[in-house]
Each structure stands twice: as C-alpha cells, then as structure tokens.
Design brief:
This protein is mainly α. About 60% of the residues lie in helices and about 0% in strands. The strands form 2 sheets. It has a two-stranded antiparallel ribbon with strand order 1-2. The chain has a two-stranded antiparallel ribbon with strand order 3-4.
Length: about 425
C-alpha cells in the first residue's frame, strides 16, 4: 500500500506523543534528539528552496535558526537510534521531496505541519538530563517554534497548500498479488508519480492511456459516492475524461501504434483500468475497495493538471501533427485545409489555440472530478489513510466556485462528447 508525507508526519507525531507520555530514559531522549535532527534537516531543506517570497524575511531566518539548533542537538546527543529516529529520517526525506514538487506557499504549509512534531520531540528530549549545551539549544528550538506558529496563525496557509502532504509515495515492491484495494491505490500512486516531473515528456498514446484510466476511476467514484449522477445534457466526471480522449482524436506524434514495452506510468494506467473493469458491479463492492476508490479519486484533479502541463509542452516541442481540416481554419494554411485527410493536409501543431479543445477538456475534467471527489469523501475524511488535505482543498475549491461554473463545465463536456464529426470538404480524400 502506498504512503505519503502526510501519513508519515502523522505516524511520527503519534510515536512522539506516546514517547512524551512515558517515563524517559537516557536512550529514549537520545532517540528523540536524533529524530529532532532529521526534522531540522527537513526544515532546512524547505527553507533552502524557499518558504517566503520576501528577501530576508523573518520567517526564513527563524526556520534557519530552528534547523541549525535541531542539528546541533542531534550532533551533541549520544549515538542511539531507534524507532523515533528511523521514522523521522524517512519522514524528513518525504517532506523534503514534497517540498520540491510544490509551490512556495506549499513549502510554508509543510513547515508549519512539522512544527507540532518538533514541539513534542523537544519536550521528550528535555524530560531527561541532557546537559547545559543541549538545554540552551532546546530553548532556541522552543522560541523559534513559538514564533513560527504565531506567524502561521496570523498568515495561515490555504487548504490547497497542504495537498503536497497527500502526494502518494508508491511501494517499491510489486503489488500484483495484493488485494484489490491495495492494487487500486498502488496503481494510482504510480500513475501520479510517473507524471510528476515538470519536465516529463508524455506522448499522445501515453496521455490517452492515462485519460482512459482516469475515466475508469472517475466512473467508479461516481458509483461509490453520493454524486446523484449527471443531469440530462450534462456530463459527469467519467464522461468528462472520455471527452478528453475525444479531444485528442485528431492529434498524433507517431506513438499510436502497438508497443512491445511501456513505461511505468502507462503500465499503471493499463493495470488500473483492467482492475476496475474486472471488479464487478460497484454496488456489490466491499467497503475497503469502495474506500480505496474514494481515496484514489482525490488525486485525479492533480493528474488533470499534470496532463494539461504536458499537452501545453507539445506546442513548444513541435512533436504533434494533425490534419488542418480538424483544426480551426486560418488563412496561412488554406492549402493544407483544402487537402483534407491526404498527406498534404498534415501540419505540425505549433499554436496553443489548436490544442485548446484538449486543454479545455482537461480543465473541465479537473473541476467535475473535484465535485465527484468531494461527494465520495462522505464519512471517509476521518480515516487514517484518507488524503484529507486533498479532500479539504477540493471542498474549498467547490466553495469558491459557483454552481454555474460546475454546471457550465458539465454542459460543455457533454457538448464536446456528443458533437457531430466535421463534414468532409469537397477535396477531402479518405
């Protein structure tokens, strides 16, 4: 089963709270001190990438002082590492990686999420005799933590800033023999992570495979959620992802052919589609599978933004071609337009306007999937492994959007999905 930085932070917080409630020995305090050093490393990495747009901001100075003090405490503590230290090491790595994949506001949110754990761990260290040098640095940790928490109370991050905590970390092993809920969540995690890199280059076939898997997951979430179904003339989340596939139909880059090997993300997309296709009637699913689908669909709006980013990159790459008669008419390509579907009618797509049907379909799929994900959150947000930060961000997105925005997106997706094919021109050859 995949995990996330948020789950690791919560687990570390529980371990630290249990340790704080027990009588501390020297080895327990040393373990907490070493754990504090790892969290200081994470705070320092977030500060290095940037947590405040202002040059020389007090927030960044306090984060630097906190990171240095935590590192000094760990360096001066006896060399004893146990559960707290090992968990903190993994958590620090996950948080630092999440910080590289989010915005500056997101890194500030990650920093605030660590402060409560730092407070508990510093109390664990202080509960045992540790010496004056460590005591002095514990005072620095407490002061910096209090001032940063005060800053967070005055300038709280938005719900969307915490979503990096819910980005999945796939399990390094192979999950083919696992149960269905684990397979669904693992495949979704691999799907999201394969498209996470901002310089990722996806072909048309790879985007199609991912849209197909997203459609299957969105339809499953509509079945297990309380969305009530789409109104006549309106598309649901699953239909909106099908509209993405329809919008991609005119475009090609040579990847629309059988492949002997596929990348990890495409394999995950194909596996997710196959698993959901053979899972039977959603009404007969057990609770773990329904919960896994409800948790996984929270990630689909993130995936829509990833795919929109890679589609926009096709224009810069010049890697996609289409027949001019399938694109908006303009004077500069009249000859190609009149050539129809003959080879002379193929042109390279170099204008973002030509890809607007695809990017627009992805934006509508994102909004409609947010609505489906919010409906699927019912009674599940309190579960330990549920991506509650993403769920809160989706709820906030719907609160900001007017009902007309969602309805308009549903109508436009329906129109795009049921649009009649273009009539052939007199010179078009088949």
């Amino acid at each position: 089963m995949p995990t996330s930085a948020g789950e690791l932070v919560d687990h570390l917080d529980r371990l630290a709270t249990i340790s704080a409630g027990s009588r501390q020995s020297g080895t327990g305090a040393s373990d907490a001190a070493r754990a504090l050093g790892h969290l200081g490393r994470a705070v320092g990495e977030l500060r290095r990438v940037g947590i405040d747009p202002r040059v020389g901001a007090e927030r960044e100075k306090l984060a630097s002082e906190l990171a240095d003090a935590c590192s000094e405490i760990a360096r001066r503590a006896p060399l004893h590492e146990s559960t707290l230290c090992r968990t903190a090491a993994v958590t620090a790595d996950a948080v630092a990686l999440a910080g590289l994949q989010t915005t500056m506001a997101g890194r500030w949110a990650l920093t605030t999420e660590l402060l409560d754990v730092v407070t508990v761990l510093s109390d664990v260290v202080a509960a045992a005799p540790v010496g004056p040098e460590i005591d002095q640095r514990l005072d620095v940790v407490r002061e910096c933590t209090v001032r940063l928490l005060r800053d967070a109370a005055q300038h709280p991050p938005e719900p969307r800033d915490f979503t990096a905590l819910d980005r999945p970390i796939p399990h390094p092993g192979h999950s083919a023999g696992a149960d269905l809920p684990a397979v669904v969540r693992e495949a979704t995690a691999r799907l999201i992570n394969s498209s996470e890199q901002r310089d990722a280059r996806l072909t048309v076939a790879q985007v199609l495979a991912r849209a197909t898997a997203a459609e299957a997951l969105a339809r499953a979430a509509e079945a297990v959620g309380d969305s009530g179904g789409a109104r006549p003339g309106h598309a649901g989340a699953g239909d909106s992802w099908h509209a993405v596939r329809t919008a991609l139909r005119p475009f090609d880059d040579g990847s629309r052919r059988p492949h002997r090997r596929v990348d990890a993300g495409t394999a995950a997309a194909l596996g997710l589609h196959a698993v959901l296709g053979h899972a039977g009637d959603p009404a007969a699913w057990n609770k773990p599978l329904a919960d896994a689908v409800a948790a996984s669909v929270q990630l689909l709006p993130v995936h829509a933004r990833q795919l929109e980013r890679t589609v926009n990159r096709w224009v810069a790459d010049g890697s996609v071609v289409a027949h001019a008669c399938d694109l908006p008419y303009r004077d500069g390509r009249s000859a190609a337009y009149l050539a129809g579907y003959s080879p002379a009618g193929l042109i390279r797509v170099l204008d973002p306007v030509d890809l607007k049907p695809v990017t627009g379909a992805l934006q509508r799929a994102s909004l409609l999937t947010v609505a489906t994900a919010d409906a699927a959150t019912q009674q599940r947000a309190s579960q330990e492994d549920f991506p509650r930060h993403l769920a809160a961000a989706h709820h906030a997105t719907l609160a900001r959007a007017s009902p007309n925005d969602v309805s308009a997106a549903a109508r436009r997706a329906y129109e795009q999905l049921h649009a009649s094919p273009a009539k052939p021109t007199p010179h078009r050859t088949r």
